[in-house]
Amino acid sequence: MVRRPFSSRVPSDLGRNPLARAVADARADGRALVDLTESNPTRAGFDYPDYLLSALADARGLKYEPAPFGLIAARQAVARDYARRGVSVSPERIALTASTSEAYSLLFKLLTDAGDEVLAPRPSYPLFDHLARLDAIALRHYDLEYHNGWSIDLASLERAISERTRAVLVVSPNNPTGSFVSRQDLKRLETICVDRGIAIIADEVFADYQLRPGACVDAGRVLDIRQGLAFSLGGLSKSVGLPQVKLGWMAAAGAGDVVAEALARLELICDTYLSVSTPIQAAAAELLSRGAAVRTQIQTRIASNYRTLAERLEAVPSCTLLVADGGWSAVVRVPSIGSEEDLVVDLVGKGVLVHPGYFFDFPHESYLVVSLLPPESEFADGVGRVLRHVGTL
Ligand SMILES: Cc1ncc(COP(=O)(O)O)c(C=O)c1O
């Protein structure tokens, strides 16, 4: 066999899983599917004002002034956006990126050598596996535990730490559990990490979206950390529902001297890529302020769909809606008669697509994860199909 020149950063098995095959078959047969996995806001029927992207034509976009962390006006706009949420951060501590995914990669370059480890919550966002592997580092997990609300199992986190642990990822609110990191958990995490020289990376892409009134205000704030090193990640993809515009950011906090050294090193990394286009930077302030029109619609939609789900589930005693405080998804515990995989494939046969819990690494079966983004009538139709099927299991 001819030797292939590929790295092991990309898995060798790129085949489709049974759910993806069932969806492809349904679509090839022309069978309609209610998609309760839709997480792309630009496909969820929101009203995007025509003027939203007009700032991209700003003449400042015609001039190239390379700046590793981005134009200061754009970084000031991001700082104002944090202030809107009651979080204070200097624009000097903010770096722009093309996306949150890119921010992870830049931070992994700052913090890790090949073979080092980062800890991620379980259950959580499946992309972390790829992000870590693409940067030649190992992903280890700590558990979130559920007792009518999620919290960090700090004992599992301490057990997962090794000599090679460089960072702990927290997602607040988490995808798909919808749990914000509490102030108490963040404080304990800070102590654990400072003592061991481990950085905290808080993914706050969904921080604007709450399902429980007051949840955003109650949440722990990573940028208030004054020891060690911590980062907050965010971006336009969720905060104003514009994933295609490709603008994200990271903001640093911690002990002054450590932050200064981190920023100096990060500057070299960002300067090597300079990946954020000037027209987007020039438009950032306008996008952040005008995007509020989309954010409000998303907030109304997710709250309404979560209520619908809760109401519909009251009539199905075999299923439980897990309490979620924020974010764009909801988790339903369903009876474990067969495997989650068989269940979601069967549901495709009933005309509805949902994610199985194992996609997000739930510790045991059976959970279904639904996106709260679809238009209300579609969502109610899809939930009806799911519950008619699982209610009879
Ligand atoms: C927790 C989490 N972080 C990051 C992202 C990706 O954000 P971006 O589009 O800015 O890379 C997602 C997308 O679903 C997400 O769920």
**Average pLDDT score:** 96
Small-molecule binders here are: pyridoxal-5'-phosphate
Report how far the terminal alpha carbons are from each other.
49 Å
Summed up, the helix count is 13
Major sheet size, sense and barrel closure: 8 strands, mixed
Unreliable stretches (pLDDT < 50, length at least 5) are none
Helix content: 25-40%
Pairing-aware structural class of the strands and helices? alpha/beta
What does the radius of gyration come to? 21 Å
Q: Strand percentage, roughly?
A: 15-25%
| DSSP E strands, number | 14
Strand order of the largest sheet: 2-9-8-7-6-3-4-5
Shape: globular
Give the topology string: H per helix, E per strand: HEHEHEHEEHEHEHEHEHHHEEHEEEH
